[in-house]
């Protein structure tokens, strides 16, 4: 496909790099419960989480990854993550459980009860640039696989994804690594150097839960290796307020913040408070980089309709 042909001119490449958005398989698919054979009956979120977390911990205690392949790697290399059982010749390997860190993510069940889900991750190379937010567009290669090593999705050539559209565990992991640098070579080819590499393991409550999809059975914990080439900050409605800032309640769901209740969430609303003045014309009139608050009531003008 032409998107990443190596002989593209520098100019064309940069235009494509910074404009194109590619939504792939990773996009959270929200299927309705139906007669679809891939959709299992919905279980209690907390019960399911506890059972899956136990199985993830057991998996990490009995498995290792190819950590020696990630030592002293070249600045443009991307070793592929391989996970195997600690047994036989590999009996002395360090288990994954001794290497990962964890992150607590709040997930709500259908009755709005919060069940904290642990996500386990390892940064294999930090990267050299900025970290993405959970709202940004990221240019990534990745490999998604299951505990039985079955690969359900893999991109060896990087693709653009929107962090807010991928499964939650992948989205929440992204800010843990940094982007790399772009090197344009004299012959017009390019590569990325010193980009962030890591992997993440998470329960189905941060994945597809009761929805099976492709090779993924319902209630499957998922593993992703992620290689972050570069990123693009997003401002979906071009109102000068970055999308990450439009998530007012900070729950990483961008669809439930709608200040003026007009049905358009703030990240897609060019007049967030519905006062007839576009957000871009009242967000930061004095240009100091801070949202203006003319009446000093603590609510910035662009969210304040009085
Ligand atoms: Ca929100
Ligand atoms: Ca709105
Ligand atoms: Ca807005
Ligand atoms: Ca307004």
Give structural notes:
- The protein has 306 residues and is of the alpha+beta class.
- The chain has two domains: 2-232, Chitinase A, domain 3 (Roll); 235-306, no CATH class.
- 12% of the residues lie in helices and 24% in strands.
- It is built from four helices and ten strands.
- The strands form three sheets. The protein has a six-stranded antiparallel beta sheet. It has a two-stranded antiparallel sheet with strand order 1-2. The chain has a two-stranded antiparallel ribbon with strand order 7-8.
- The radius of gyration is 21 Å and the shape is globular.
- The model is unreliable at 1-24 and 29-34 (pLDDT under 50).
Overview in brief:
With 306 residues, this protein is α+β, with helices and mostly antiparallel strands. The protein is 12% helix and 24% strand.
């Amino acid at each position: 496909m032409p998107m990443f042909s190596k002989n593209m001119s520098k100019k064309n490449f940069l235009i494509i790099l910074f404009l194109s958005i590619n939504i792939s398989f990773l996009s959270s698919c929200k299927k309705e419960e139906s007669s679809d054979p891939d959709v299992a009956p919905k279980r209690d979120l907390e019960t399911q989480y506890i059972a899956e977390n136990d199985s993830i911990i057991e998996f990490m205690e009995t498995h290792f990854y190819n950590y020696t392949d990630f030592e002293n790697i070249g600045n443009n290399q991307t070793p592929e993550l391989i996970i195997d059982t600690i047994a036989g010749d590999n009996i002395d390997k360090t288990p994954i459980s001794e290497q990962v860190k964890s992150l607590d993510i709040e997930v709500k069940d259908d009755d709005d009860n919060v069940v904290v889900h642990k996500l386990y991750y390892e940064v294999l190379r930090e990267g050299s640039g900025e970290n993405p937010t959970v709202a940004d567009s990221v240019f990534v290669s990745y490999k998604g696989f299951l505990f039985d090593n079955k690969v359900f999705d893999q991109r060896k050539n990087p693709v653009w994804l929107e962090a807010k559209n991928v499964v939650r565990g992948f989205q929440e992991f992204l800010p843990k690594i940094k982007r790399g640098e772009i090197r344009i070579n004299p012959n017009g080819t390019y590569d990325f150097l010193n980009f962030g590499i890591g992997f993440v393991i998470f329960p189905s409550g941060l994945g597809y839960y009761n929805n099976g999809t492709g090779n993924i059975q319902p209630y499957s914990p998922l593993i992703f290796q992620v290689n972050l080439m570069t990123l693009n900050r997003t401002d979906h409605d071009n109102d000068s307020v970055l999308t990450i800032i439009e998530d007012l309640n900070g729950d990483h769901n961008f669809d439930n913040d709608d200040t003026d209740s007009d049905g358009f969430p703030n990240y897609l609303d060019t007049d967030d408070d519905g006062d007839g003045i576009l957000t871009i014309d009242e967000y930061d009139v004095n240009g100091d980089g801070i949202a203006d608050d003319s009446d000093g009531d603590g609510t910035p003008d662009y969210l304040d309709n009085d």
